[in-house]
């Protein structure tokens, strides 16, 4: 993280979505707000959730852990303890798993668009829950507020654990759960 931290303002100016992508993302948000009965978005906190699955699920032999349903519950509870009127917006490359494992006692919308529209939609949210991977990382960073991440990505003592320095990977102030 130390590598580009001094350039974060410039990066935020440079890493923007094209107008037509932002238009679709904003339309997605408006539809979600309307579905949950709040067209203006007033007093609503949107939490973007990216759940990475795919090939990551089979990397356990390499010392890698994917996020568990328990992590998702802890992350959801983290935001529920801090905000009211929350809508969780979930994007995933393992949507059936995500739908089965997101807590059921919340307002949640699952989105499936192109990757760039999903990222723009997540980046438009107030806060972010990420599991593993660069897609979620950049979605959280672009959103720019509170981000929770799965802090048990590696199995202790594994080759993966020896190669990763989490201080270089997770942004200062993000919350590991």
Automatic annotation (TrEMBL):
<keyword id="KW-0735">Signal-anchor</keyword>
<keyword id="KW-0328">Glycosyltransferase</keyword>
<keyword id="KW-0325">Glycoprotein</keyword>
<dbReference type="GO" id="GO:0005975">
    <property type="term" value="P:carbohydrate metabolic process"/>
</dbReference>
<comment type="similarity">
    <text>Belongs to the glycosyltransferase 11 family.</text>
</comment>
<dbReference type="GO" id="GO:0008107">
    <property type="term" value="F:galactoside 2-alpha-L-fucosyltransferase activity"/>
</dbReference>
<keyword id="KW-0333">Golgi apparatus</keyword>
<comment type="pathway">
    <text>Protein modification; protein glycosylation.</text>
</comment>
<keyword id="KW-0812">Transmembrane</keyword>
<dbReference type="Pfam" id="PF01531">
    <property type="entry name" value="Glyco_transf_11"/>
</dbReference>
<dbReference type="GO" id="GO:0032580">
    <property type="term" value="C:Golgi cisterna membrane"/>
</dbReference>
<protein>
    <recommendedName>
        <fullName>L-Fucosyltransferase</fullName>
        <ecNumber>2.4.1.-</ecNumber>
    </recommendedName>
</protein>
<keyword id="KW-0808">Transferase</keyword>
<dbReference type="InterPro" id="IPR002516">
    <property type="entry name" value="Glyco_trans_11"/>
</dbReference>
């Amino acid at each position: 993280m130390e590598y580009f931290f001094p350039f974060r303002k410039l990066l935020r100016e440079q890493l923007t979505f094209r107008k037509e992508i932002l238009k679709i993302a904003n339309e997605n948000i408006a539809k979600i707000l309307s579905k949950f009965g709040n067209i203006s978005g007033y007093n609503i906190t949107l939490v973007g959730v990216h759940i990475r699955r795919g090939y990551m699920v089979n990397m356990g032999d390499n010392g890698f852990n994917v996020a568990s349903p328990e992590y998702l519950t802890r992350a959801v509870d983290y935001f529920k303890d801090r905000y009211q009127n929350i809508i969780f917006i979930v994007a995933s490359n393992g949507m059936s798993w995500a739908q089965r494992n997101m807590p059921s006692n919340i307002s949640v919308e699952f989105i499936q668009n192109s990757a760039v529209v999903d990222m723009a939609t997540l980046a438009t949210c107030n806060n972010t829950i990420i599991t593993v991977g660069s897609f979620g990382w950049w979605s959280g960073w672009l959103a720019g507020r509170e981000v929770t991440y799965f802090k048990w990505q590696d199995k202790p003592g594994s080759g993966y654990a020896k190669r990763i320095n989490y201080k270089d990977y997770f942004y200062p102030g993000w919350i590991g759960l």
